Amino acid sequence: MKRPLALIGLTAMIVLTVCFYGTFRIIAAVFLVALAGLIASLTVKALRKERSLAVVFASAMVAVLAFNMFTFLYVTPLTNRYSGEHIVKARVLEEPRFENNLCRYELRGDKISGEDVNFKLSLITSEYIPCKVGDTITFSTYLYESKKGNALSDKCYLSASLYDIEDVSVEKPLKRPLYYYAVELRDKIRTALYMELDFDNAALASAVLLGDKSGFSDDINNNIRRAGLSHIAVVSGLHLSIITMMYKKAMGSLIKNKYVNALSTILIVLFFLTLTGFGKSAIRASIMLFIVLIAPFFKRESDSLNSLGLASVILCVANPYIVGDVGVLLSFSATFGIVAFSSPLNAFLTRRLLPLQDSWYVRINKLLRKLSAMFSVTFTAVVATLPVTILFFGKVSLVQIVSNMVVVPFVQYFMLACSAAALFHFVPYMGTVRVCLSFIANVLGDLILTLTGWLASIPMAYVKADYAFVLWWMLLSFILFVISYILQRKGKGLNIFCGILSLLILLSGAVSHQLASLNRLSVYAFPSEKGQTVILSGIDGNIVLCTSADTYGSKSVINVLDTVYNEGVFMLSLADNHNCRENAKEILSVFDYREVLMYDKTSGDYTVELWDKATLRVFSRNGNVYQHLLFDSKDLLILPPVGNVEDIPQEMRNPDYLLTSGIIDNMELLSFETLLSNGNYFARTAVLDFFSQRSGEKLSLTDIINFDIVG
């Protein structure tokens, strides 16, 4: 049996992922299938020869059992016991992470309501608590079970939120932990980067060197995500390989002893891990690197797939909830794709090239080989991560392969220049050298950010994965490459032809989608218990109507707008509602809009022409705000939770699409083709019951609904 660790580790990670995100029925079904498969692989004569089957099914069973035992014997009793109001005394383990104007602290509990404890918990605050790693903080709060995957993957099974930090007391320890000094060094390096580089370049340097993305502006963050380059801002195998390569080039000629060389490389990697906060993707990469370095001492050859499997086993045993971090799944799937398929793909692409020594065009040959290697690594990583990307984000970057081939080669030189500039920042009398290094780093940073912005701005660069042409492209490409693989075994390989055909299918689908969108108006209606939120998107731009008063209602709007590749034209929000205003501000902090209307209920009528082919009318009657949009020959009417249909002009009472979050007076005067019922469960149910005898489509908004009014 080849690569047993790969079979065990990767099977365990896949099954744990299904257990973590699946329902109890799905978990039970996986266990029963694994049990039946194990019995069959041990009893059926034809299957007993394939020992790998028994290993896979046994690994799946063990993973299911381990997950359930960990959940029901440790996590559930812990959360049940300590959920509720408590006085918490805990030590700060890591510097805070800043996300969405909130601070997240990772703590180690010492006492919960006077009881000695020793487990991690997550604290979210609206303000920064002036504390450092190793400090003990005491506060009164309500502890609740963590639901977010990132917190669970960090072993923080309990969480707390504080919106007033006045009563938080901070106590400094008599002796700081060693990790405190690593965090202080990280802060000094970050400060040096911001002093030596332009702000945006310093933010990029902090991300690629320290894993700190807090300095990214919204534009840079969006561009990196749209271009499919998020991995460069997460410390992982790419960064470790660059660091070790830089170290070997600098010290390889000085250290001749292979044992000392390997040990020094391991120490450098451990130092880098400590400096960057032991990111889970970086730990995975470091385990694989350590195996490569140590294997020759035991006269063994390291196997990349087995190393990946061993890394999976180590991480999953340490924390079965590690799969709650989507970054871990992306890291493992990308590495699996590269390790398993990039070399065969590269060999196929370069097999027609002459050997270098026999070629009269050596430079062109070398360039083609490098391009082939870059394409093979990028293509296999992108394809391997597609399932994870689609399942968890629902969006795909169509320029990801190009952007990685164009941008990533500059990252290693940027890291080198930034590292040197930060180092010479602390060396006196080296101002000229420091200025030169900072200049080089700024040039490279500007180049990376400019290329990223240009690639992200390409129409259809970042699209929803449920666009029909994307799904068809994936399906047809899979069928093409399966056919090619079958024919290749018979000596009739068609890989290049299938690759070109796959690219043509993608391009033709994107162009067709673009042409079909010329007169299309898409509507996104959001579930909300406090008001309405609607996005209208056409080829000429998008508008946001009525940001709801739901707390954090802006987050789902921002996620949808990420997939809308056109610019913002118009936004409407109620001026007399605090939450509506805050949600509008949050959206505007990420996206620009040409015109913003903060509408007050006493403002009277307001009419705006949109795209030169749509008319939006907003009017208030008796303190209730109504909205009517006419696009081409179709119209949409949005009702307030309280109101009177008699206040609506007669010509607007027959909309094609009616959106309401409750029953208002004289509602029987309305008719529609499609009804969208919003609000809480009782409001939605009441509206559907009220119109149950009416013809037309009736939809309950329990999730975001997307449909086309025109086109």
Describe the structure.
The two termini are 56 Å apart. Helix 12 (304-318) packs antiparallel against helix 13 (326-350). The protein has 21 helices and 23 strands. Strand 18 (624-631) and strand 19 form a beta hairpin. With 711 residues, it is of the alpha+beta class. A 7-stranded mixed beta sheet has the order 16-17-18-19-20-21-22. It has a 6-stranded mixed beta sheet with strand order 15-14-13-12-11-23, covered by helices on one side. Strands 1-3-5-7-6 form a 5-stranded mixed β-barrel. It folds into 6 domains: 4-79; 83-176, OB fold (Dihydrolipoamide Acetyltransferase, E2P) (Beta Barrel), CATH 2.40.50.140; 238-324, no CATH class; 344-397, no CATH class; 468-516; 521-710, Metallo-beta-lactamase, Chain A. The chain is globular, with a radius of gyration of 29 Å.
Indicate the CATH topology of the largest domain: Metallo-beta-lactamase, Chain A
Task: Report Rg.
Answer: 29 Å
Tally of structural domains: 6
**DSSP E strands, number:** 23
Strand content: 15-25%
